[in-house]
Every structure is written in structure tokens, then in C-alpha cells.
Q: What sequence folds into this?
């Protein structure tokens, strides 16, 4: 998966572009994991404007109001990697150009509702499908998303046996006859 | 676990039994034969990934274990639209889909072996009674349950229920349904040198602890240890060869370097799972068998079944964390009965299911976007879920054919999987959605989501067994009607799908077949 770090705003800018930002939610799950409040993701195939457009487009596709831009930036990073293929790059940059053209210059400058209308208008297009296909994987397959959505992931080989696999206390406890007991050789880890 | 071959056989050794595929059927058969002193060459298209290689990262595991060679789809089933090149989610690795399976281990009910007699003649379905009955399999079910340490059999305690189970149990109680943690081929206690379940929740990704039974961690090492079985990995069988008398003589396969090899054989057994098995027979067509090997009756590839499936996900005010612990953690069996009063033939089971966040995003509503979709993901840690699995109707138009326009990496035509739901399947799914939703409503759900079928995990029926040669491909032992030394050894044999998860039955049939092949070889009948 993506190894984009939430490191400080230290990066070497060659061609390409960058997404930079500051975490919006100081107490969110993502903030707990991040080494710093500011973040930056560099891109090789897209300039700043293109990267920002892809990020905002992705927010329209998969809107999670309290999910940090820093996580959406991982989708841009994945698209950037895919765009090393010239055909993909062409498709994505054309898609962005079309959005801008329809917005008389800069799609990003439209207000949210107008942007949304345009996203709906291109739903199902190859551009839309490429962004969606990347986003549905990249947005949810990283430790920041795991923390945000409350997915514990793999933990370690000791599993959840002593880490809350049956910790619901808001429902009655089922009888042992329909369930089972914890193996007694299982040492808590 | 030791996976080294203790002995190897020459390519021109025509005394060996070649077994194709190392999953539930093939792995069990290979061990069953090797234990009798029969020489076996086990050919597996995938590579060896032992349990310490497994990942607890859903996409990495998917790439490691899944069958990703191209396939195509057609028909009106929703999978063809959502996953046009992924009709089935099954494996290509040593151990086959038993690395993937969630280990729910149920017996087929006696009446389900007589579906045609019991359900009658349903229009648009090709129902047929099995040539064997429950009593033929019962002793092998006993042995299989012992072998797999199936919980709630042989005094083996049940697995402790996780959060997902608690939610299902609460709703089931309110509706008057029975519900428990099921019969699972997962060690609830340390047994046979394999540890107990750690409730880690990566049963679909191989189970790093080895608590879950698979041919990878039992049958295959045992078969190799006898010194009678040689396993060749990355060996993709392209064709089964035969002589002028119509007996099979061996198989041609691509080895790991992409080179074509030929292995002679006295007997060939095919267990490539129900898409690859008919594909291989069809790809083995010859002057003598113009429509495919053992396909004089025309049934090879037909009657493809995948079970009626669907899922219900439900959100609760309080957290559930369904991903913690066994994937199939609870079962409601009440609707598995045959009761025409519900408006359909056959029955279905309700079983908990859990997906991690990455797979949930991909499978909960494929292709969906916008707020309706993200609302469900926002509730991820508050979701409980169940999978609905029931008997689907066999149809001769639901079938595996060769797609000559699409070729795999070896240049072989790929399988096309065509499926249309029968009205009975649709009526059953609607009923199951309703009952599943009621279970969760009774437990206090705030939102209910009916989730469409995933790519097929149960694949059945494409070389079905039949009493009469004109009705199917093989007899009650999986021996093909047309070619006496060719056997079908996987779920392709199923005459009808029954409501239950199929693997316990596949294994029991493979054990029975191993004995039968041993006897016939001794008697020089094959
Ligand atoms: C996610 C998931 C969960 C499941 N859960 C359950 C469950 O809880 N209970 C249950 O009963 N069942 C379950 N199943 C189904 C179960 O895995 C299958 O029924 C069973 O593994 C099928 O056995 P098989 O021998 O037919 O095929 P497989 O186990 O799939 O093995 C077939 C093997 O043949 C190999 N092969 C194919 N073609 C060739 C060729 N041409 N040459 C060489 N090798 C070849 C493949 O690489 C593969 O390794 C589940 C399946 C999945 C995917
Ligand atoms: S939950 Fe149990 S069976 Fe499933 S992967 Fe974990 S240890 Fe294995």
C-alpha cells in the first residue's frame, strides 16, 4: 500500500506537484496517529491544480465529512502511481481538463452543489471509473482509515481472543450451551 | 509442516493416479489414496504458501491466494455486472479454497438428496435425484467430522461466540429461532498438533494460527509423509489424454517454467473446482470425444450452481466490531427446511459473516458512490452482518463454456460462466432478506442494508452425478459414465446444491471415492 507519510512539510519538489494541508480535527483518530498536524503528499504526474482537483473529486465520490483530506490524498497518490502509464495519465488529465472547461476555467472554484452536479454528469465515464476504482481501494486500505472507521485490522498472532472479540455489554450474554468457553490453556497476552 | 516430496515418480510411470487440484476434494483424495499405498502425483496450478506466509491484509491476501487467471461472465445475475471478470472468489494455491474457507461444516439433509422427488418438476429447472442417499454418505460424514475436529460433534465444544454472534443470537431469540456458534472445522481446543482459534478474524485469508482445518495443514503433509505421493506445484493441467480404447492415459500440463510436460497415469481424478473441472474436460476434446472428454451426454459444464446468496448488514447504536473473531460465528438453521408454504422449494441458512474495512468497501455495494454508500461505511464499527445461503435451482442454461476469444497465459480458452437466477432463487432470496432483516430489527438495528451476492464461493454441479448415463457425467462414486479410469472429485459432482455449505460433503465424498478407487485398482477393474 501507499507509504506516503504524514511527515512535516519537508519535500523535494521536482516537476509534479504537491498536496499540502493541516489536519482539520485535532482530536480525531487520524490526529492521534500523525506525527504532526501538517501533512504533504507529492505527485510526479500531476501538478498542484490537478492533484487538488482529483482530491476534491474523490471527496464528492466518497464523501465522509469528518475524514481528513490527508487520507483522501492517498487516493491521489495511488492515481499518481497509476498515471505512470501514459494512457492512464492522459485519461485523468483529460478528465480534469473537461471538468475545468465545463466550469469555464476552474472546476475547483465552483461551489459544492455545482461541483456535485458535474460529478453526477460524468458518472460512469471512464475517467469517473478510474478514480472510483482507485478510491474504493486506496481510501479504505490504510492505517489512517482503519483508525478513523474503527477497524482493528490484523493485530498480531494472538488475535482478539483476549482483546475484546466478545466485549459487547449492551446485549444479554448468550448461554454457554449455544456458545463456548475460552480455551483454558490460553494465556492472556 | 513438511512439504518436501519423500519420493518422486517418472513422467512415464503409468502406474500412478494423477490428482488435479489440491483443495478440499483433491487434497483429501490424494491422502486417502496414499494411505492405501497407492502412488499419487498431485498436480496443483498454484504455488505453496504455508501458514506463516499468510497476510492479515485483505488485499494482499487476495492477491496471494485467489485464482486471478482470466474468466468471463454472462447472464442476468448481478455478479456479471459488478465483477465481469471475477465470477468466483476461489483459490489457486496449495490447499485450494480450503485456505479461504470459513470452515462452516454442515451435512446435507436426507431429503435434499432427492430434490426432484421431493420438490417435483419445477419449470425451468433440471432437478434430479442424487444416485446416492444420505445413508451412503453417513459413515463418511462421521469420519470427516472426526478428521476435521468439527465443533459440536464428537463431544468437541463449540467455539465461544464473538460480538457478531451475540447480535444474531439476540435477534434469533426474539423471533423464536434456534441459534448457536455452529459446526465449525476450527479447533476450539488444541488438537492434532494444531492450536485453538485465536479469534483473529482472518479465516478468509488463510488462518495464520492453523486452528482452521485445510488440506494445506493436514491432508497434504500427511500424504507426502507416506512416501507415496509427489506434489508438483505451479503445474497447470491443460489436457487429459486418452488412447484409442477411450481410456485416459495421462495429462499434459504446463510446469512452472511454462513448459509443456506429460505425465502418464493409470487413473486421473479431476478436482479443480466446478469452473476449472468442466473447462479442462471441454479443453480435452478430441476426434473420439468431439464435445469434450466424458461429455457424450452433453452435461459437462451444465447445471452450474452457486447457491442462492445475499447478505444483510445492520447498524446499531452501540459498537459491534464484527471483524473480531471467527467470520462464521453463528448460524440460524430454522429456514433450511423444505416447506412449500413459504412460496419456494428448498431452504436456506443464515450465518454470520464479517468483512474487514477494505473488503467491505469493495463488496457492500459494488460500484456505488455518494452519501448512500458512505453512510454505511461511516457505520462500519457498528455493523453486524449475516450471509444468506440456500439451495439454488440447477438449469441447463446456467453453464460453463469455453470462451475461445479470451485466452489465459498458456493460450488456453478461458471459462465463461453464465448464470440467470431462477424464480425460485429470487423468491427465496426475498424471503431470506426479510427474515434476516427481522432478526436484526428484533435486536434493535437502526439501519438495515440488503447486500447483493458476492462472486461465487460455492461452485457446484457442472459434472453432476446421475443414475443414468444420459442424465449426467459421473456415477455415485464420481467415476465418469464414459471413461472408467477418469473420476470427478470435487463439488462438480453435486446433483443439486442443497442448502448447506458444501465442503464437508465434498470431503466425505472424496474419502469414499478413495476407498472405491483402491478397491477397483485391486480388482484390476481400472
Ligand atoms: C471465502 C470463502 C469462504 C468459504 N466458506 C466455506 C464454509 O464456511 N463452508 C463450506 O463448506 N465451504 C466454504 N467455502 C467453499 C469451499 O472453499 C469449497 O467448497 C471447496 O474448497 C471446494 O473444493 P474443491 O476441491 O472443489 O476446489 P478448491 O478447494 O478450490 O481446489 C481446487 C484447486 O484446483 C486447482 N486447479 C484448478 N484447475 C487446475 C488445473 N487445470 N491444473 C492444476 N490445478 C488446478 C486450483 O488452483 C485449486 O487449488 C468457502 C469458499 C470461499 C472462497
Ligand atoms: S478467527 Fe480463528 S480460525 Fe479464523 S483466522 Fe483467526 S484463528 Fe484462524
A:
Amino acid at each position: 500500500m501507499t507509504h506516503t507519510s504524514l511527515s512535516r512539510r519537508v519535500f523535494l519538489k521536482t516537476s509534479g506537484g504537491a498536496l499540502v494541508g493541516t489536519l482539520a480535527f485535532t482530536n480525531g483518530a487520524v490526529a492521534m496517529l500523525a506525527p504532526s498536524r501538517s501533512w504533504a503528499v507529492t505527485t510526479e504526474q500531476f501538478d498542484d491544480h490537478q492533484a487538488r482537483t482529483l482530491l476534491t473529486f474523490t471527496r464528492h465520490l466518497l464523501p465522509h465529512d469528518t475524514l481528513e483530506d490527508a487520507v483522501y490524498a492517498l487516493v491521489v497518490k495511488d492515481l499518481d502511481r497509476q498515471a505512470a502509464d501514459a494512457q492512464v495519465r492522459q485519461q485523468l488529465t483529460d478528465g480534469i481538463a473537461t471538468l475545468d472547461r465545463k466550469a469555464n476555467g476552474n472546476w475547483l472554484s465552483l461551489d459544492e452543489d455545482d461541483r456535485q452536479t458535474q460529478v453526477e454528469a460524468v458518472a460512469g465515464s471512464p475517467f469517473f471509473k478510474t478514480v472510483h476504482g482507485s478510491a474504493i481501494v486506496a481510501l479504505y486500505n490504510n492505517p489512517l482509515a482503519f483508525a478513523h472507521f474503527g477497524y482493528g485490522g490484523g493485530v498480531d498472532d494472538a488475535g482478539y481472543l483476549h482483546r475484546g472479540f466478545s466485549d459487547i455489554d449492551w446485549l444479554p450474554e448468550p448461554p454457554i450451551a449455544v456458545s463456548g468457553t475460552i480455551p483454558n490453556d490460553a494465556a492472556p497476552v | 509442516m513438511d512439504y518436501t516430496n519423500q519420493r518422486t515418480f517418472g513422467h512415464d510411470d503409468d502406474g500412478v493416479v494423477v490428482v488435479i487440484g489440491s483443495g478440499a476434494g483433491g487434497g483429501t483424495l490424494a491422502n486417502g489414496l496414499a494411505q492405501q499405498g497407492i502412488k499419487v502425483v498431485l498436480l496443483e496450478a498454484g504455488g505453496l504458501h504455508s501458514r506463516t506466509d499468510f497476510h492479515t491484509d485483505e488485499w494482499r491476501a487476495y492477491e496471494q491466494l485467489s485464482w486471478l487467471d482470466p474468466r468471463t461472465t454472462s447472464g442476468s445475475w448481478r455478479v456479471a455486472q459488478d465483477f465481469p471478470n471475477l465470477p468466483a472468489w476461489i483459490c489457486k494455491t496449495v490447499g485450494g479454497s480450503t485456505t479461504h474457507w470459513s470452515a462452516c461444516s454442515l451435512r446435507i439433509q436426507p431429503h435434499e438428496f432427492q430434490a426432484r422427488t421431493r420438490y417435483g418438476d419445477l419449470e425451468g429447472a433440471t432437478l434430479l435425484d442424487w444416485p446416492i442417499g444420505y445413508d451412503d454418505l453417513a459413515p463418511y460424514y462421521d469420519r470427516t467430522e472426526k478428521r476435521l475436529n468439527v465443533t459440536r460433534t464428537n463431544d468437541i465444544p463449540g467455539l465461544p461466540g464473538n460480538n457478531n454472534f451475540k447480535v444474531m443470537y439476540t435477534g434469533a431469540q426474539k423471533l423464536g429461532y434456534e441459534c448457536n456458534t455452529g459446526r465449525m472445522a476450527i479447533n476450539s481446543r488444541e488438537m492434532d498438533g494444531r492450536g485453538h482459534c485465536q479469534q483473529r478474524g482472518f479465516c478468509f485469508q488463510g488462518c495464520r494460527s492453523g486452528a482452521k482445518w485445510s488440506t494445506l495443514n493436514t491432508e497434504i503433509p500427511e500424504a507426502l509423509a507416506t512416501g507415496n505421493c509427489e506434489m508438483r506445484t505451479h503445474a497447470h493441467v491443460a489436457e487429459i489424454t486418452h488412447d484409442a480404447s477411450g481410456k485416459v492415459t495421462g495429462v499434459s500440463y504446463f510446469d512452472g517454467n511454462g513448459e509443456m510436460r506429460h505425465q502418464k497415469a493409470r487413473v486421473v481424478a479431476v478436482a479443480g473446482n466446478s469452473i476449472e473441472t468442466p473447462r479442462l474436460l471441454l479443453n480435452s476434446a478430441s476426434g473420439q470425444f468431439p464435445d469434450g472428454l466424458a461429455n457424450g451426454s452433453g452435461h459437462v459444464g451444465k447445471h452450474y450452481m452457486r447457491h442462492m446468496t445475499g447478505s444483510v448488514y445492520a447498524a446499531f447504536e452501540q459498537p459491534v466490531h464484527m471483524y473480531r473473531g471467527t467470520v462464521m460465528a453463528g448460524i440460524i438453521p430454522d429456514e433450511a427446511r423444505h416447506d412449500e408454504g413459504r412460496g419456494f422449494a428448498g431452504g436456506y441458512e443464515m450465518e454470520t459473516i464479517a468483512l474487514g474495512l477494505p473488503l467491505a468497501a469493495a463488496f457492500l455495494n459494488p460500484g456505488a458512490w455518494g452519501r448512500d454508500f458512505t453512510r454505511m461505511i461511516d457505520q462500519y464499527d457498528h455493523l453486524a452482518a449475516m450471509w444468506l445461503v440456500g439451495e439454488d435451482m440447477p438449469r441447463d442454461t446456467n453453464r460453463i463454456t469455453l470462451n475461445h476469444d479470451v485466452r489465459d497465459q498458456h493460450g488456453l480458452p478461458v471459462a465463461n460462466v453464465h448464470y440467470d437466477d431462477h424464480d425460485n432463487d429470487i423468491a427465496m432470496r426475498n424471503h431470506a432478506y426479510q427474515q434476516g432483516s427481522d432478526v436484526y430489527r428484533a435486536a434493535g438495528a437502526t439501519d438495515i442494508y440488503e447486500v447483493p451476492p458476492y462472486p461465487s464461493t460455492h461452485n457446484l454441479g457442472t459434472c453432476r452425478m446421475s443414475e443414468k448415463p444420459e442424465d449426467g457425467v459421473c456415477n455415485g462414486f464420481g467415476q465418469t459414465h464414459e471413461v472408467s479410469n477418469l473420476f470427478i472429485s470435487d463439488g462438480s459432482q453435486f446433483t443439486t446444491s442443497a442448502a448447506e455449505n458444501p465442503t464437508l460433503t465434498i470431503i466425505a465424498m472424496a474419502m469414499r471415492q478413495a476407498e472405491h478407487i483402491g478397491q477397483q485398482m485391486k480388482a484390476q477393474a481400472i
Chain B has a mean pLDDT of 97. Chain B touches chain A through 57 residues (CB under 8 Å). Residues 17-49+60-522 of chain B form a domain with the FAD/NAD(P)-binding domain fold (CATH 3.50.50.60).
